Protein: Non-phosphorylating glyceraldehyde-3-phosphate dehydrogenase (NADP)
Organism: Streptococcus oralis
Amino acid sequence: MARYQNLVNGNWKSSEKEITIYSPINQEKLGTVPAMSQAEVDEAMKAARAALPAWRDLASVERAAYLHKTADILERDKEKIGTILAKEVAKGIKAAIGEVVRTADLIRFAAEEGLRITGQAMEGAVLKLQVKTN
């Protein structure tokens, strides 16, 4: 049985309490996930907020590279992830693997769309139009 952890600020973290995940198919124990306390959630959110400026400062090409790498990992591990997904939600294995592939495709699409966004935002003045009626 797998014991999963959360990635917070670059470190894998467990919690004092865990939630056991069972398959709806046959009640097989699939693994555990951390049951984060409010303090742990607050810590994770604080770390995410602190990381945002560095992410924002990356060039769009660099952000896209990270997203493509994520998609590549999903594609590489689609069988393993799809098998776990199929057991967790009682889904057919082919459909579960297809969902992982679609997720990788959506991430790649988002990465490419981020590269196509160009231009600058400009504040415009409000134009008042008066219409005369007879």
The two ends are 82 Å apart (CA to CA).
